[in-house]
């Protein structure tokens, strides 16, 4: 960590409890009270370096008083920063480093410690150190940006936050300027040990450091990196890393417990992730991890009766459709949401169900959806339609094998298994007929019309001969349209 010493005196101040005093023969004529600390100081060292202290002391001092008291409540960095400022005013040695330079730079600006008072005043000293030493080093820039949190408004006004972020983004793009000693190996040749060539650090070397930042600062870094043209895959991986380390409950491998308080955090993370991944198509496995996190989170918060529909949809729709190998979990989340938001209109329910890709539901999920009375009728009919398509494909396979038994290596054993599957399909078909009958009503022409289409579609394959145990054939007959009885 870079450091710089300012001043030369030693031992000017000493601390007793919460009271700072000067080791001088002169009695203190100024008391500065900050938080729980009191500083017994002298007027002239203070008014000779700071415009604000000169103004406050002059205003508070009276000829009838031997000592004036000034109470300060909003100093950047609090009593710790003022301790360094007081020592600076008396010429005592202080050390500037990445941990204190930002609050001290803000405090120096607050007290207006400019060159108009003394040459090499605290503003110029801290600004020079920040620019030439801190912002040129990766680790120090990260530390300085972290300390901006405690004095954020002042740091923003002085453009310190933006400069730190710009510095970090530039370094992340260009690569770490040093090698990682842990990646340097030893090679033994003919009894002689030598150091192997240092290995370059990978493109993810900066993830861990920026994950120590607050979410707002992290997002700003990601935006700047994006504007500088960093690979979208690298950006998305950084967001995923941040999501898994910022809070244990966001890590799919952890045992963290979801809480309602995490909603804002995850919404922000997912929103950032969504903006990053839209430009990259090579992140399916990575984005699937985020999709798993989001869908699991949606299941947890779906039971919150205060969760607005648009909020739920917004969070769920951030994940691109290709990121979900299966839609079972998002279907489960929507099922829970419908259960605890029964007042939704049919149109709102249909709008919500647009988030589900029925083709990506598992067999069990489709069976559940086909019998789910919470779903809109139109959605249930679509589920049954997709199930019909799967049945058609399965029957086609049965018919194919019936005409080409030599496709199996083990002959009879596999054919028997397939016959059992065909019987199961017939049962599923009969079950679907009952479900349609339950849903359909005489006035519901759409359902009856679709059922007729289902039968026509199904009949082309289902009527084909299927293998049986005795070598004969069987067929599944098309079923009549439901009459609502």
Q: Give the overall shape.
A: elongated
Main sheet summary: 5 strands, mixed
Number of helices: 20
Mean pLDDT: 75
- What is the total tally of β strands? 11
Low-confidence stretches: 178-200, 247-261, 405-413, 457-485
Helical residues, percent: 40-55%
What can you see in these coordinates?
With 485 residues, the protein is of the alpha+beta class. It has helices at residues 43-47, 51-60, 78-89, 101-110, 122-134, 138-147, 152-157, 160-174, 207-210, 215-227, 232-246, 263-277, 284-301, 309-317, 328-340, 346-353, 363-370, 377-403, 412-439, 445-462, and strands at 3-6, 13-16, 19-22, 30-34, 37-41, 68-72, 94-97, 186-189, 192-195, 466-467, 473-474. The chain has a 5-stranded mixed β-sheet. A two-stranded antiparallel ribbon has the order 1-7. A two-stranded antiparallel ribbon has the order 8-9. The longest helix has 28 residues, at 412-439. It is elongated and about 105 Å long. The termini are far apart. Residues 178-200, 247-261, 405-413 and 457-485 have low confidence and may be disordered.
């Amino acid at each position: 960590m870079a450091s710089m010493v300012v001043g030369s005196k030693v031992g000017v101040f000493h601390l007793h409890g919460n009271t700072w005093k000067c080791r001088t023969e002169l009695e203190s004529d100024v008391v500065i009270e900050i938080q729980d600390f009191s500083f017994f100081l002298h007027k002239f060292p203070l008014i000779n370096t700071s415009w604000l202290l000169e103004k406050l002391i002059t205003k508070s001092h009276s000829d009838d008083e031997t000592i004036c008291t000034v109470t300060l409540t909003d100093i950047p960095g609090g009593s710790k920063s003022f301790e360094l400022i007081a020592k600076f005013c008396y010429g005592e040695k202080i050390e500037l480093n990445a941990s204190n330079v930002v609050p001290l730079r803000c405090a120096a600006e607050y007290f207006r410690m400019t060159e108009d008072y003394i040459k090499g005043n605290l503003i110029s000293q801290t600004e020079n150190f920040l620019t030439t030493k801190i912002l040129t080093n990766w680790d120090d820039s990260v530390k300085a940006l972290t300390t901006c949190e405690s004095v954020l408004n002042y740091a923003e006004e002085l453009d310190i936050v933006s400069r730190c972020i710009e510095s970090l983004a530039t370094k992340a793009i260009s690569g770490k300027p040093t090698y990682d000693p842990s990646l340097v190996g030893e090679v033994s040749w003919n009894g002689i040990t030598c150091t192997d060539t240092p290995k370059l650090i990978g493109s993810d070397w900066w993830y861990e450091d920026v994950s120590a930042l607050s979410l707002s600062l992290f997002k700003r870094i990601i935006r700047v990196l994006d504007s500088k043209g960093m690979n979208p895959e690298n950006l998305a991986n950084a967001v995923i890393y941040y999501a898994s380390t910022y809070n244990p409950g966001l890590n799919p491998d952890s045992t963290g417990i979801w809480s309602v308080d995490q909603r804002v955090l995850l919404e922000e993370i997912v929103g950032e992730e969504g903006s990053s991944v839209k430009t990259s198509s090579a992140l399916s496995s990575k984005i699937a991890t985020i999709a798993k996190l989001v869908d699991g989170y949606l299941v947890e918060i779906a039971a919150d009766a205060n969760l607005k529909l648009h909020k739920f949809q917004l969070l769920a729709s951030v994940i691109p459709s290709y990121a979900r190998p299966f839609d079972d979990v998002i279907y489960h989340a929507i099922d829970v949401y419908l259960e605890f938001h029964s007042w939704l209109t049919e149109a709102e329910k249909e709008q919500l169900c647009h988030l589900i890709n029925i083709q990506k539901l598992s067999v069990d999920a489709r069976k559940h959806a086909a019998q789910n009375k919470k779903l809109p009728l139109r959605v249930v009919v679509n589920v049954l339609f997709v199930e019909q398509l799967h049945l058609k494909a399965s029957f086609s396979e049965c018919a194919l094998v019936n005409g080409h038994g030599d496709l199996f290596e083990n002959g009879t054993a596999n054919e028997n298994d397939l016959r059992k599957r065909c019987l199961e399909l017939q049962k599923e078909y009969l079950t679907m007929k009952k479900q349609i009958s339950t849903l359909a009503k005489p006035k519901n022409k759409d359902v009856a019309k679709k059922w007729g289409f289902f039968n026509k579609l199904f009949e082309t394959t289902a009527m084909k001969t299927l293998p049986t145990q005795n070598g004969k054939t069987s067929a599944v007959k098309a079923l009549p349209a439901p009459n609502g009885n």
